[in-house]
Amino acid sequence: MKRNYSIEELRALDQKHFLHPTSPVKTENGPAFIFTEGKGVYLYDITGKKVIDGMSSLWNVNIGHGRTELGEVAKEQMDKLAFSSCFATFSNEPAILLAEKLAGLAPGDLSTTFFTSGGSESNDSAYKLARHYWILKGEVSRKKIISRSKSYHGVAIGATSATGLKAFRDFTNSNAPDFLYVDHFSTKALRDLIETEGPETIAAFITEPVQGAGGVHVAPENYFKEIREICDEYGILMITDEVITGFGRTGKFFAMEHYNVVPDMMCFAKGVTSGYAQLGGVMISEKIHREFSELSVGTILHGYTYSGHPMACAVGLKNIEIIEKENLVANSAARGQELLEGLKALQAKYPFIVNARGLGLMAGLEVFSEGSLLAPQIVLEAAKVGLICRAVVLDGQDVVVFSPPLSISQAELKDLLNLLDKAIQEVENKIT
Ligand code: PLP
Prior knowledge:
Elements: H1 7-17, E1 35-39, E2 42-45, E3 50-53, H2 56-59, H3 68-81, H4 93-105, E4 110-116, H5 119-136, E5 144-148, H6 157-162, H7 166-170, E6 179-182, H8 187-197, E7 202-207, E8 210-211, E9 217-218, H9 223-234, E10 237-241, E11 265-268, E12 280-285, H10 286-295, H11 310-325, H12 328-349, E13 353-358, E14 363-367, H13 375-385, E15 387-388, E16 390-392, E17 399-402, H14 410-431
Parallel strand pairs: 3-15, 5-6, 5-7, 7-10, 10-11
Antiparallel strand pairs: 1-2, 2-3, 4-12, 8-9, 11-12, 13-14, 14-17, 16-17
């Protein structure tokens, strides 16, 4: 029989037994929140506190919390077939249908999917597929992967090694070889690096369409067109990491649609299931798939136990159906515009806000104060008044970032901005 634990007991057990991901190891009072329920844009914790999930948790709960349809689909699929392997060409219907659905949604000729369980695995898969592609093509020296400063690509050893935020790489002080970094907005720096290293040594360039965990950086308008041209000129594969930006987050189904650029490979995760199941993948172009088929003599020696997990894929299909039926991509664009306007209004009000930026429902508020970081203080005050947002302080930054569910209403967005205003006011009172 399940026992009822007191809040204090749960806090103590958490502190003793749960090593949290991307969290301080030591906490004075245990976990900041123990969540028990979610509904729409709101989360409720064990004390009964209600907060707006201004981050869609980890940029992923795109359709919002508490959509019971996804649980129903998951149960139906688990009752019928909870798991079967996708190795050795074994397959299952939800994986086949999701791969087909994604082919219809993805930009250009990205039409074949390799499934994973999340973003880090997707990026590692892309690096390995890119390197294997060059082996098949006889260009064995093409091993190096170039990524951008301030990028975040996850925490598997390959994904960490490609992450431009240095603190993540320094965490272990030992990374995978053949990863290189360029300034996040400079196409000249990329060209120079390719020339210095030798184009015949470069396998791929990976980029987020909008840098998320690195502080929400939107690239200059022609950046990706130029990147595509440089990759074509030097025969380098272009990989986009749409782990955050995919599935409507930026006001288009995939963010590369803003720039009319089609990559050779595209990684996704998070929004594909809105976090209701663990799923990710890397999509490859028709050309690469064809070349793999023509040149490959053996087996793709890369696969996760849960690649093509039937329940996760069934949840993904239902999640995409909801995004489409409820026009959540259009809502993301419209509410995103209002979010950005609201943040700009706050910038006009508070002298220490130096920049407000974003694309769709992905936004950042850059702050500055001599001698102290403000973003963590704003995030703390926001949580007190009922809003969850996140501080980015890595690489000398001081930014509060936002990515509320795509289902957010106009009224809820106003609430979010009002709560944020209150939190910022509190911080202003403290520092002046
Ligand atoms: N790529 C990007 C752009 C991300 O933001 C993240 C996670 O936040 C990842 C990859 C890693 O995904 P996961 O945490 O699912 O491994």
